[in-house]
Amino acid sequence: MRPRLLAALIVGILAFALYRATLLPGADFGDTGSFQATVGSPIITPRDGYPLYFALGGTLLWATHAEPAHALNLASAIEGAIACALMVLVAAELSGSVAAGAAAALLFAGSYTFWSQAIIAEVYALHALFVALTLFLLLRWERRPTLVRLSVFFAVYALGFGNHLSMILLLPGFTLFLFLAAPRGWRSLLTPRVLLSALAFAAAGALQYAWNLRALWISTQPPRGLVDALHIFWFDVTKSDWRETMVFHVPASMLLDHLSMYRFDLHQQFGWPGIVLALVGLAALTWQSWRRGALMLALYAVNAAFAYSYNVGDTHVFYLPSHQILALAMAPGIVALTHLVGWHRRIDLKSTAVVVAASAAIVYAGIRIYDDYPALDRSGDRRPSEVLQALTAGIDDRQAILLTDLNWQVQNGLSYYTSAVRPQVAVARMPDVLQYAPALIRDNAAAGRDVAVTDRARAELEAAYGPLFRIDADPHVHLEPIASVARGVAAGTRYVLCLLRPSRDLALDARDVDAVARALGADASFTWPAGDYSVVAGVVGQPPSFIVGSAAPFRRVTTIAGARVDVRMESWLAADTIRRMGFAQVIVGRQHTLIVERGLSFAAFDDRGRALRVAYAANLFAPQPRYLIHER
């Protein structure tokens, strides 16, 4: 086996082992929950999009017969591992060194954001695969520019649009490189054969979305004709209703903050040594092959600029393609650092210096993976399933129905849970039934079924029909406020309590914060530390021994009753409203003790870091109250 293929295989296996070991076992909230609820369905609407992603996920679901959530999480791990393997080939081609290529791929495999997306049901691992594969095919065409190789590149590039439309962001860089690298000049790419090949594969790629278009014709309100169908399809598949208010719509007052966020995010992925390697690599690549340098710079610039100007709550994931380009640039950076004196001379790519430098980079990647492993390990994270289980406790279609109005992220998780885990739960959204709610409640009462509602749904029902109904707390739901959980922890137990600025739609009562602190042993003189990121830790029954507050993310290590506690604030709250991995992590020893969310997050733990009690307030994982509706 060729050295490059062998190195790619080894890196792919290592990456898969890493992602498989830290894989989220089941359901999640947000887009992940929506994907998990949709996979395996024969109907994929234009709003769902991603036909290739769902086709591949559905194939794995069929092959494994696993629970849909687990199958789709596993698909991301497989796709992420293949992406890392392909990166070895691309980075080796850019640098000429297999060892440097392997080092660059491992640095990307262990980068914080990519790792976090490769262990859940998300589209970004597959997107990284297509970024790497199209780059590999393009560089392969450059070496031997035939129409067949160019057509294969066109075909794979078009196929990538079936996963994510942000493939369009690669077009400026790819077009520039094709024109610059064409052996007979750029006009040779405008021949009928080349243009017909490009158009044919573009049309074939677009046919993936026939699956989505078909869903319109079998809906309860089909379009009036083809033009109407195409209009609805385009509006939904591109999500025009919210993209036009978010793309290039970062407020001017936030531009500097987004720059600080990017600096924080870039350091989180690779650390300063990795960033330096990437910058050196881009410079070296441009010096050695200005066409390849222009390609990588264009790809990086377009993707980074898009993410920077995208006013969305999970900006960090949209930086992933630009991070991938920087990781690839690290390979020529490794080689160049061993030849800082005279880049113009012939470089011996098999020299001891290159191998030593690449080995050092691989060790650095391993150190980073070892350090981040506990923080990114979601193999024991069953919080979403526990929230949904508590929310639907005692509900089935024979005894009760549930009317909800939840945060969209939790609602998506509930959609999966009630379709794949507990299909016997009868559930509807209150906004969808509010107009005829009295008749719905009356008919279910006549059939002997209770009608349960969530908190926001209760408020809507009271606002519309208050005098008609009596609303009581549902006895099937046992709510234990976070202060009550804290009071129930035995004196002498270690604890950590984090407060991150809550989202605007999830208010936090200052009295609850004080009540928790008092329950843990803080005296009357205690004041909560200022800043968006704060943490208090110590031993229950004693004044806190560790108090830190900051306006910016931080990482601190302390010792609580002999246990080493590593507090990692790993989000940028001004930009991040969505963090699948949590907004911060608490690691005790090598144990992932607490995933910290916005609002209040609390954990009591033993000397090994095993969480004894965990509680949340003012975030997605806080207990959800439920009520029963009765006619007066």
Can you offer a commentary on this structure?
With 632 residues, the chain is of the alpha+beta class. It has 25 helices and 14 strands. A five-stranded mixed beta sheet has the order 2-1-3-14-4. A five-stranded antiparallel beta sheet has the order 7-6-5-12-13. Strands 8-9-10-11 form a four-stranded antiparallel beta sheet, covered by helices on one side. Helix 2 (30-38) packs parallel to helix 20 (408-421), helix 4 (68-95) packs antiparallel against helix 5 and helix 4 runs parallel beside helix 17. The longest helix has 34 residues, at 255-288. It is globular.
Extract low-pLDDT stretches: 341-345
Structural class: alpha+beta
Helix segment tally? 25
Based on Cα principal axes, name the global outline.
globular
The N- and C-terminal alpha carbons lie at a distance of 78 Å
Number of domains: 3
Portion of residues within helices: 40-55%
Mean pLDDT value: 92
Largest beta sheet: strand ordering: 2-1-3-14-4
Number of beta strands: 14
Major beta sheet summary? 5 strands, mixed
Q: Cα-atom Rg, whole angstroms?
A: 27 Å
Strand content: 5-15%
A few lines on this structure:
This protein has helices spanning 3-21, 30-38, 51-64, 68-95, 98-109, 112-117, 124-143, 147-160, 171-181, 192-206, 210-217, 226-237, 240-243, 255-288, 290-308, 315-318, 320-337, 352-376, 383-391, 408-421, 430-433, 437-446, 455-465, 482-487, 510-520; strands spanning 400-404, 426-429, 450-454, 469-473, 494-500, 533-539, 546-550, 555-560, 563-569, 584-588, 591-596, 599-605, 611-617, 626-631. It has 632 residues and is of the alpha+beta class.
